[in-house]
Amino acid sequence: MTVTSYQIHSPRLPSMLIAVASDLHGCPHKDAVDALQQARPDLILIPGDLMEDKMLADPSSSGYAFLRECVSIAPTFYSLGNHEIGCYHKGNPWRHPTPIPLSDQAREEIARTGAVLLDNDEVTWNGVRICGLTSGINGKENKADAEVLARFAKGDAPRILLCHHPEYFYPDIAKTDIELTLCGHAHGGQWCFFGRGVYSPGQGIFPKYTAGVLDGRCVISRGLGNHTRIPRICNPCELLLISLNQKAEENQV
User: Fold this and answer.
1) Model confidence over 76-93: pLDDT tens digits?
2) How far is CA 139 from the centre of its chain?
3) Who's near 36: CB < 8 A, 6+ residues apart?
């Protein structure tokens, strides 16, 4: 696992250190917790695919353990990716799954960890509005919830959006003035050659948006875990540390 640091200029968001822990998929997490304890971020944000849908029914799941570890370090906010809602191909790319709402049991178990679940809703923390835009995969469609996004884009308070799918940014989120969006899902393209990922669900072969910073205000994580039999190549798992500050820094994809 690597720790990748970014400097983001945001005149409206307060200066702070944010850790982004995306796409753990219930994998072992000791290295990530050790890195979080060393970094001591002000905030830990998890933009989806922390664990698989079946793991949500098991209170002993590694995902819940990770949430408890995170909460012991910093306030932790968690939004839902396609795996939590049961939307993935299971080896069949022609399968078009329908999302399964999170059970009351899973919601209660998440709450018991001390983490805050954001399922197409938002909270305000230290004057910052934080919203979790749940994965929009539904049958053959994969779209951001336009109503949730439009509601969050309004208002005067500074905003941070947890959005599992980076492919939502340019069609939808970039049209708003949301200050910071955090994504995962693409796993860095799984195999990475000459700085370019090979494949990402939702983007296909040679995807454009797998890691780095878009438009100075959207940061994409390569993810913390690997739930497939296909190994990562030249593409280590990644914990992100984002320093928000008032000084402009140039960030490129």
Assistant:
1) 999 999 999 999 876 666
2) 22
3) 19, 21, 44, 69, 70, 73, 74, 239
- The token pair at 87 is 């939307």
Express each pLDDT in 156-196 by its tens digit: 999 999 999 999 999 999 999 999 999 999 998 888 887 88
Half-sphere exposure (Cβ direction) of 105: Cα atoms closer than 13 Å: 7
Domain with residues 2-245, CATH architecture: 4-Layer Sandwich (3.60)
Residue 45 is encoded by which pair of tokens? Answer: 């944000």
- The answer to whether 182 and 221 have CB atoms below 8 angstroms apart is yes
pTM exceeding 0.90: yes
Q: Measure the CA–CA gap between 200 and 1, rounded to whole angstroms.
A: 20
CA dist., res. 240 & res. 14, Å (int): 18
**Residues found in the chain:** 253
Task: Name the DSSP letter for residue 87.
Answer: -
Token digits of residue 175: 């049209």
Q: What is the pLDDT of residues 204-213, one digit of tens each?
A: 888 999 999 9
SS (H, E, C) the chain: CEEEEEEEECCCCCCEEEEECCCCCCCCCHHHHHHHHHHCCCEEEEECCCCCHHHHHCCCCHHHHHHHHHHCCCCEEEECCCCCCCCCCCCCCCCCCCCCCCCHHHHHHHHHHCCEEECCEEEEECCEEEEEECCCEECCEECCCHHHHHHHHCCCCCEEEEECCHHHCCCCHHHCCCCEEEECCCHHHCEEECCEECEECCCEECCCCCCEEECCCEEECCCCCCCCCCCCECCCCEEEEEEEECCCCCCCC
- 205's tokens: 């072969």
